[in-house]
TrEMBL record:
Membership in a protein family: Belongs to the TRAFAC class translation factor GTPase superfamily. Classic translation factor GTPase family. LepA subfamily.
Name used for this protein in its record: Tr-type G domain-containing protein
GO cellular component: mitochondrial inner membrane; mitochondrial matrix
Organism: Anabas testudineus
InterPro entries in the record: EF-4 (IPR006297), EFG_III/V (IPR035647), EFG_V-like (IPR000640), EFTu-like_2 (IPR004161), G_TR_CS (IPR031157), LepA_C_sf (IPR038363), LepA_CTD (IPR013842), LepA_IV (IPR035654)
Topology within the bilayer: Peripheral membrane protein
A single GO BP: positive regulation of translation
GO molecular function per UniProt: GTP binding; GTPase activity; mitochondrial ribosome binding
Length: 556
């Protein structure tokens, strides 16, 4: 296929502005899928995407489009809109020369519209602004065009007004893709060189890599090398994604497709890797900036016997989602496990759900934390919790964009929900890392009859210590059974106790029930009690069931 008739583009936008719906129409109009009422967000293939109604993985589809008597190959990548998945957007952009920037005709420019615009702008891609949902009663494309001129400095004449739902003017979008986006700078006569921009693990076929061919050609049977590990593989299968796998004989410069080459280990064909022919080595492409984890949580198997299974599930899923960082960790209470880093709370929830749905794994997830740097000195005394305003830009008469510096732990858990409800859904929000700041954080211990419980020591902000400590004591009180003596459950900072609950004494005589009973029944009961004890951990003189740790450490 001649390179000058190839276009690679992705669809970017704020969440819910209609990316996946536009992708459906483009697929239908080019004959990739049949026209039926049932086609709703067909590229959202994962169960988690269908259940939540959001895109979490970028998806690729190759379309054939006839324009003025010529056939064009259009490679489309639909991307997620939520800030937690912006890593998917930046990866997709590296395989493209242009973007469709979708903006809802009713909502106008929102936080992720701005964030995604800058990703495309910095990568110097052609940007086609598309105003969607013009069929809505309150649609106001005029105002949105003014916003686009003002905020992005793109002339209003370049905007295309469409209804992705009804298909209105979508043909114009296809024409703009052909006319305004340049073909890829890839040469068929160069040595073969491809970027692995996505990858997933198939149970039977091993690693299936999605590649963008930057030069040359590759065919079945070729010996290829992955630059990352330097290992050689034979190409078993390759083809286009339309959007389902469609095997072909060769892939050429400028094309986007998939390749299967007998890679059985998830460490092979990592996202960002370069592939080349064994006899024609090339310099590796720069790859991707590693994602910066913002939220950390522990993940543990329900039972230690499930550790190996969970390990391979996590490895396979992180092959598909390389923005997750994984470190081995262990907890006195929960045994061997991992500490995983995510880009946000939604990302963490989606990852957890995918582990359960796609890998049948059940896990204990601990309460999320944000990264801290500890300096062991009195400099922590500096108090700084308030957000500081950085700047403010009026988008139009009704909308303002404000920048603040926030401590991450103030925004990570419930800030977004709060902002949405306070603004009746009008405000939107995006964030980037601004580095570490000094804060008044303290170490809080949990004590059982005066003995510290190492597993439950936490770092909290001084202002939150009381409420967190109290909540932890209450949970422990509920999950530790009464014992022969009274148990004091305390939260303490240094030697100062800040919260306390009491578990009353209870004399539990399991043999009392068998008064006069036969000896075998007594033995059985004693054995059962001994087995129960094995699941206990002794802290000082207190027996703590494993469940108690799980209840306190787990997310609600
Ligand atoms: P994405 O998050 O950007 O991928 O958005 P979706 O494609 O999932 O669409 C979000 C919602 O907007 C869905 O309920 C769509 O049916 C709806 N939607 C998309 N395009 C249009 C449109 O042109 N008109 C109307 N009225 N609704 C639309
Ligand atoms: Mg979507």
């Amino acid at each position: 296929f001649p390179v000058d008739r190839i276009r690679n583009f992705c669809i970017i936008a704020h969440i819910d502005h209609g990316k996946s719906t536009l992708a459906d129409r483009l697929l239908e109009m080019t004959g990739a899928i049949a026209k039926t009422e049932k086609n709703k967000q067909v590229l959202d293939k994962l169960q988690v995407e269908r259940e939540r109604g959001i895109t979490v993985k970028a998806q690729t589809a190759s379309l054939f489009y006839n324009h003025q008597g010529q056939q064009y190959l259009l490679n489309l990548i639909d991307t997620p809109g939520h800030v937690d998945f912006s890593y998917e957007v930046s990866r997709s952009i590296s395989a493209c020369q242009g973007v469709l920037l979708i903006i809802d005709a009713n909502q106008g420019i929102q936080a992720q519209t701005v964030a995604n615009f800058y990703l495309a702008f910095e990568a110097q891609l052609s940007i086609i602004p598309v105003i969607n949902k013009i069929d809505l009663k309150n649609a106001d494309p005029e105002t949105v065009e003014s916003q686009i001129e003002k905020v992005f400095d793109i002339p209003r004449e370049e905007c295309i007004r469409i209804s992705a739902k009804l298909g209105t003017n979508v043909e114009q979008v296809l024409q703009a893709v052909v006319n305004r986006i340049p073909p890829p700078m890839a040469h068929i006569n160069d040595p073969f060189k491809a970027l692995v921009f996505d990858s997933n693990f198939d149970h039977y076929r091993g690693v299936v890599a999605n590649i963008a061919v930057f030069g040359g050609r590759v065919k079945k049977g070729d010996k290829i090398v992955s630059a990352h590990l330097g290992k050689t593989y034979e190409v078993n299968e390759l083809g286009l994604l339309r959007p389902d796998e469609h095997p072909t004989q060769k892939l050429f410069a400028g094309q986007v497709g998939y390749i299967i080459a007998g890679m059985k280990d998830v460490k092979e064909a990592q996202i960002g890797d370069t592939l080349y022919l064994q006899q024609q080595p090339v310099e590796a492409l720069p790859g991707f900036k590693p994602a910066k984890a913002m939220v950390f949580a522990g993940m543990y198997p329900m039972d230690q016997s499930e550790y190996p299974g969970l390990r391979s599930a996590i490895e396979r899923l992180t092959l598909n989602d390389s923005s997750v960082t994984v470190q081995r960790d262990s907890s006195l209470a929960l045994g061997a496990g991992w500490r995983l880093g995510f880009l946000g709370l939604l990302h963490m929830e989606v990852f957890n759900q995918r582990l359960e749905q796609e890998y049948n794994a059940s896990v204990i997830v601990t309460a999320p934390t944000v990264p801290y740097k500890a300096v062991l000195s009195s400099a922590k005394l500096i108090k700084n919790r308030r957000a500081t305003q950085k700047n403010m830009v009026y988008i139009d008469d009704h909308r303002v964009m404000m920048k603040y510096l926030f401590p991450l732990n103030e925004i990570v858990v419930d800030f977004y929900d709060l902002l949405k409800s306070l603004s009746s859904g009008y405000a939107s929000f995006d964030y980037e890392n601004a580095g570490y700041q000094a804060a008044d954080l303290i170490k809080m211990d949990i004590l059982l009859n005066g003995q510290p419980v190492e597993e439950l020591t936490t770092i909290v902000h001084r202002d939150r210590a009381y409420s967190t400590g109290k909540a932890m004591c209450e949970k422990l009180q509920d999950s530790i059974p009464r014992q022969m003596f009274e148990i004091a459950v305390q939260a303490a900072i240094g030697s100062k106790v800040i919260a306390r609950e009491t578990i009353k004494a209870y004399r539990k005589n399991v043999l009392a029930k068998c008064y006069g009973g036969d000896i075998t029944r007594k033995m059985k009961l004693l054995k059962k009690q001994a087995e129960g004890k094995k699941k206990m951990r002794r802290i000082g003189n207190v027996e703590v069931p494993k469940d108690a740790f799980i209840n306190v450490l787990k997310r609600k």
